[in-house]
Amino acid sequence: MGEWTSEELSKIETAEELKIASMRRDGTLRKTVTIWVVRCGDQLYVRSVNGPNGAWFRGAQKRHRGHIRPGGVRKDVSFAAVDPGGVEEEIDAAYRAKYRRYPTSLVDAVLTPRARAATLELMPDDQ
Fold first, then answer.
1. Is 71 helix (H, G, I), strand (E, B) or coil?
2. Tens of pLDDT, residues 56-89
3. Is 101 helix (H, G, I), strand (E, B) or coil?
4. Cβ–Cβ under 8 Å, residues 45 and 37
5. What span, in angstroms and rounded, lies between the C-alpha atoms of 14 and 49?
6. CA-CA distance, 90 to 21, in Å (whole number)?
7. Of 4, 32, 28, 7, the residue nearest 17 (C-alpha)
8. Which of 15, 36, 39, 97 is placed for a possible disulfide with 71 were both Cys, Cβ 3.0 to 4.6 Å?
9. Predicted local confidence at residue 115, as pLDDT
10. Three-class HEC string of 8-64
11. What does pTM read for this prediction?
């Protein structure tokens, strides 16, 4: 696994949305889904508003690899589960701050226990 460059982190942090696709067993990518992404320090996080049952999330859990396209960045990534009780509050705060101009009901959808249970860290996959 590689590290994000400061330019990548900056572009992804300021991107409104992220296009994400998990990898299939044969190495091809599944259908792209548009989701929100937040940055906490030098880490990037995404959540499934549908929780662990979300289709894109299930695909990410099977292969742990995929591809993202936010803010002009195109990058292969690895997905890592986030330990409950670790950085959840920081991630919640990042979602509230970044997406505060949206209706509260939309932002609250990524702050539920169900969405929190489907939090993944994105890591550059330089394989």
1. coil
2. 999 999 999 999 999 889 999 999 999 877 799 9
3. coil
4. yes
5. 20
6. 25
7. 32
8. 15
9. 95
10. HHHHHHHCCCEEEEEECCCCCECCCEEECEEEECCEEEEECCCHHHCHHHHHHHHHC
11. 0.93
